[in-house]
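REVIEWER CHECKLIST
Item 1: Sequence provided? yes
Item 2: Single chain? yes
Item 3: Sequence as submitted:
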Amino acid sequence: MKKILSFFIVPLFFFSSWPGLTTTLTKEQATIIVGNGIDPQALNISEFNGITLIGITPPESTKFDVTIVPAKRAINVIKQALALIEKNSPFSKSQIELLKMNGPVIIVYDPRYPKKEPTTSSVKIALFSPFYYSQKKKYKTRHTFLVIVSRHGAKWPIKELAAVLVHELVGHGTQYLNGKWNKMRLVDMECEAWLYEEMAYQNLKMDKFSTVMINFKKQLEKQCESFLRYLKHSDSIGETEWNKLNPDVLKLLEHFAFYQKQLKKQ
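Item 4: Structure as written out by the authors:
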């Protein structure tokens, strides 16, 4: 009986000490999230409208492939990106609010991510991964929407970083909330998130004829190759919408949902 009681006491205590909905984390709670023996003094804690922002300052002896942005400056960059989302993308804002109602939304600037140096010309900007850090078992009792911004992401143009955060939070965060994250095919998880990123770029009035957006369109087509093949073969209305310069992403997502249903029947 004592073992059973102790088993329940720890989770209940932790859950009761966890922040209420839409509240930010204390330094102690942030330390639990990032874990891995990080000195709490190496953490810079801030918030943006109920989103907890954590900046990690690595030891001075740590070597990186690029110059590292200081944690406080990186947090300010992330705040600017979030402010753009809030001001310009009503749908993304509403979806992030929905996440906040269901658990802590946390963005960590971690210059140690990615661990390995890039082997190609592409770089990793951010990652949605609620169980990225080793202390995941201590907060698995509820949804935790965790995004890691890399050492490269802190240097990314603000508008592009904002769109990437939409990709991670609205795309993958919503998948996680709805029980679809890591249960959909990876190609479809990414396609859906890239569609939300397309919506963000439209909201931010990015020039669709710029090099950045031309390259983005190529990547979007690559990430959505399976969905696009379905549109071409089985959904002419969806294909017509896709081919517009600024497609209605919410309409495309309706076609995407039907495409997902067809996959389940196969």
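Item 5: Key structural point noted by reviewer: Strands lie at 43-48, 51-56, 105-109, 126-128, 145-149.
Item 6: Recommendation: ____
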